[in-house]
């Protein structure tokens, strides 16, 4: 970052190029841009939104809310006209002339992503927030076009698409593109400090991690029978959390945050997994999700991670991640995404009288999807592909 701040006469596009890495959250997060860099209109970063649903609209808001310099939303793409219209109306109402998307730059259909990206210049930013099935196809095109990317998690739906994505990641590095992914917990100061303390050896060797996202039925993972004259394909895309090809299912979409924060603390990815799940209480729902999931992951050093996921009524609810080391244990997060409540205990008993550290910086009470960057500004650890 020092070389960037001390450089002069550099354009905003060149500057984004110079920071090429995969980092969590907003496409513009973590980039400190000096005032003189973006004085002229020609330096305006153009943003295209591909997938104008709930999170896409929120991510566009994040991008347009940046204080880092002139940014405009200039193109939008979706497969459903009503989704695009709803998103456009909402963004236009809030951001006025920063939303410069005339009819000819509103694209509908399965090639709409290409048309939206074709309207950008090299070094601009594209937001990819469609169902994950389309992510690698769109990321590939963004790399070909030399665009910086913010894309939502999950970025893949299965083994083959994961391998494709890892290869594309290497391509993006070669082009020095900046790529942000919506695992916003990576920007949490409390979790970041916990990670640093674990690296400093405060917990000793981490040998067990536990992650839970067990609650009542999560709406979008429970899909009703198709009705009306919508095609089967468009119905499944509209209800993507219910279909494995489209999203990896609720397992992938909802449990990813807990899996990711545990792997972050362990500073490793598992090398083995064995799991099972059950489907007993689906009633008339036609989606492909289970009611419950359990997975035992093993890391290369033999350490274990236990994951439990569930969507059933009248059961215990918990949305939390923990880790246990040879010298102590820690809460990674305990009440959803925020506040994390991260803290360290001197032994394995997680009681208040055993607490030896908790983060002094006040944590946000709640992460609004439209305020990820403002709530959690400091990226501590870039996402690596170990
Ligand atoms: N970081 C987080 O915690 C978080 C929170 C919410 C959603 N998300 C992620 O964001 C993504 C989108 O989720 P959402 O809740 O906004 O869903 P959504 O259904 O509201 O939005 C998806 C949009 O993509 C459009 N679309 C579908 N296929 C398309 C295609 N081929 N080309 C162009 N547009 C297409 C849909 O019509 C829809 O408007 C998912 O990957 C989801 O997991 C992440």
Based on the model shown, name its key terms.
386 residues; alpha/beta; Rossmann fold; eight-stranded mixed sheet; seven-stranded parallel sheet; 12 helices; 22% strand; disordered C terminus; binds nicotinamide-adenine-dinucleotide
Tell me what the structure shows.
Residues 1-10, 18-25, 30-41 and 368-386 have low confidence and may be disordered. The strands form 2 sheets. This protein has an 8-stranded mixed β-sheet. It has 2 domains: 2-181, NAD(P)-binding Rossmann-like Domain (Rossmann fold, 3-Layer(aba) Sandwich), CATH 3.40.50; 188-375, Dihydrodipicolinate Reductase, domain 2, CATH 3.30.360.10. The chain has 12 helices and 15 strands. The protein has helices spanning 2-6, 12-18, 54-64, 81-95, 112-118, 135-144, 159-174, 189-199, 232-238, 244-247, 249-266, 372-375; strands at residues 22-24, 45-50, 71-78, 106-108, 125-128, 148-151, 179-181, 206-215, 272-278, 292-298, 304-311, 318-325, 329-333, 343-345, 355-358. By secondary structure, the chain is an alpha/beta fold. 43% of the residues are buried. The two termini are 23 Å apart. The structure holds nicotinamide-adenine-dinucleotide (NAD).
> What overall geometry do the principal axes of the alpha carbons give?
globular
Bound molecules: nicotinamide-adenine-dinucleotide
Number of domains: 2
Helices, by number, come to 12
Mean pLDDT: 87
Task: Classify the fold: give the CATH topology of the largest domain.
Answer: Dihydrodipicolinate Reductase, domain 2
CATH architecture verdict of the largest domain: 2-Layer Sandwich
Could you tell me the strand content as a percent range? 15-25%
CATH superfamily of the largest domain: Dihydrodipicolinate Reductase, domain 2
Gyration radius, in Å? 21 Å
Distance between the termini: 23 Å
- Contiguous runs where pLDDT drops below 50 for at least 5 residues: 1-10, 18-25, 30-41, 368-386
């Amino acid at each position: 970052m020092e070389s960037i701040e001390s450089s002069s006469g550099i354009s905003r596009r060149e500057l984004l190029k110079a920071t090429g890495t995969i980092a969590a959250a907003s496409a513009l997060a973590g980039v400190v841009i000096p005032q003189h860099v973006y004085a002229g209109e020609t330096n305006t970063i153009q943003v295209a939104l591909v997938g104008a649903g709930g999170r896409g609209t929120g991510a566009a808001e994040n991008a347009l809310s940046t204080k880092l310099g002139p940014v405009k939303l200039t193109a939008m793409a979706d497969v459903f006209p009503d989704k695009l219209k709803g998103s456009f109306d909402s963004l236009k109402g809030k951001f006025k002339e920063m939303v410069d998307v005339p009819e000819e730059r509103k694209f509908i259909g399965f090639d709409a992503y290409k048309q939206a990206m074709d309207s950008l210049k090299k070094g601009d930013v594209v937001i990819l927030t469609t169902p994950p099935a389309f992510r690698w196809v769109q990321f590939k095109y963004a790399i070909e076009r030399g665009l910086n990317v913010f894309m939502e998690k999950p970025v893949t739906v299965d083994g083959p698409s994961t391998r494709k994505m890892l290869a594309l990641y290497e391509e993006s590095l070669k082009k020095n593109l900046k790529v942000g992914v919506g695992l916003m917990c990576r920007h949490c100061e409390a979790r970041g400090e916990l990670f640093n303390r674990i690296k400093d050896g405060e917990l000793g060797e981490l040998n067990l991690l536990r992650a839970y996202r067990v609650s009542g039925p999560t709406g979008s993972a429970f899909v009703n029978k198709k009705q009306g004259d919508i095609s089967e394909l468009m119905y499944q895309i509209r209800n993507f959390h219910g279909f494995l090809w489209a999203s990896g299912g609720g397992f992938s979409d909802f449990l990813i945050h807990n899996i990711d924060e545990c792997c972050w603390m362990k500073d490793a990815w598992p090398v083995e997994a064995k799991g099972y799940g059950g489907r007993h209480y689906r009633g008339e729902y036609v989606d492909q999700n289970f009611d419950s999931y359990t997975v035992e992951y093993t890391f290369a050093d033999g350490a274990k991670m236990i994951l439990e996921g569930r969507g059933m009524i009248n059961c215990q609810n918990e949305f939390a991640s923990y880790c246990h080391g040879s010298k102590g244990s820690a809460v990674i997060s305990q009440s959803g995404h925020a506040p994390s409540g991260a803290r360290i205990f001197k032994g394995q008993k997680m009681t208040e009288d055993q607490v030896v550290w908790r983060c002094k910086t006040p944590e946000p009470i709640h992460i609004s999807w439209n305020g990820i960057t403002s709530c959690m500004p400091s990226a501590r650890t870039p996402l690596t592909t170990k």
